[in-house]
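Readers of this paper often ask what the protein records in our data store actually look like. An entry from our holdings is shown next, in its original layout:
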Amino acid sequence: MRSLVTNLGLALVLAACGDDAGTTRDGSTGGTDGGGPGTDAGSPGIDGGGPSTDAGGPGTDAGPGTDAGGGGGGRYFPEGAWFLDDVSGADPAPYSDEMIATLRAAGGWGNGDRFQIDFSIDVLTADASTPKMAFTTTGDFYDPDCDHLPVPIPAGGNLEGEDGYECASDGDCHLIVWSPSENRLYEMWRANITGGTFYGGCLAVWDTSHVYGELGRGDQCSSADAAGFPMAPLLFDADEVAAGEIAHAIRFILPNDRVRMRQYVRPATHGTNTSGGPTAPPYGVHFRLRADYPLETLPNEGARVVARALQRYGMYHADGGNIALTARSDRHTTASWDGLLAPRDLADLDVEDFEVMHHGDTIPVTYDCVREPPIPSD
């Protein structure tokens, strides 16, 4: 993912808790949701991760009332952030049909061309009294892309796909903590707290009082997500769906062999060594569900709530992997996914049901990260 090859991470083992793999900087596979920072080598195998299952499905509720509970309702940032833009009235890109046809010819969505939902990522909430913990960097930390600051660690919290803060599965193990008292969003890829020591991969700290410009945290810079995006604002959760509205865009992922080779488009600031052809979707591409899609054919209201958000705000490509959409786990929400939305409730959505939004010319991936002014140290 960057020009200093001496910092390339070690190969990761596919996590047992998911069927969808993220990409490390050396192009090996690892993780449950495809949410790693991404790299300069993404081999064709990154879209694999085992047979298709309902990994990360509903029913993971660990019970309400933990100190880590709460959440931002999907917004987190002020009005003006790109993922809050209503694009329902915008014209599709002139190349939309060609790009959709290319994705279809390449195999469509991952996971056997099934538009499935992953429910494995948690968002924790810290308050002003939550203790912070410094971390020891690992081979999954990249300079200058990543931030090296102490992270608030809420009691009762957990990593993605884990019951606590130990990365026992050797998966992506995202640690996402929203700290409204600081106006900060802490997002780390490959976190692991074990034996009293905090080992950290790539940490991206976002100023949630700030509307970032088109360069985000920096051009050619990754975050805890390979496109350089913040992750939490692009997740949808059970509380939003139960309330009947998701008022923001959604994160989605594709197999790397279906994404244009080493190209990204704004608002992404980073991409990986993808291997798709010249008319394939680039990293960061923005899809919108067609306005004429028959929502009444979907199996339940929860699916229709998600589909309406896809029609109004769309979805942005964030990483490589198999499971198309990423929702937040219900471990720390009030509502539960059980009876509300299941992993395959949007399986009828085909690539042809979407159109592509234009966000400027594509940008070659160089991995030469130039950071915007960083978050100051405490």
User: Anything to note?
Assistant: The chain is about 10% helix and 20% strand. The mean pLDDT is 85.
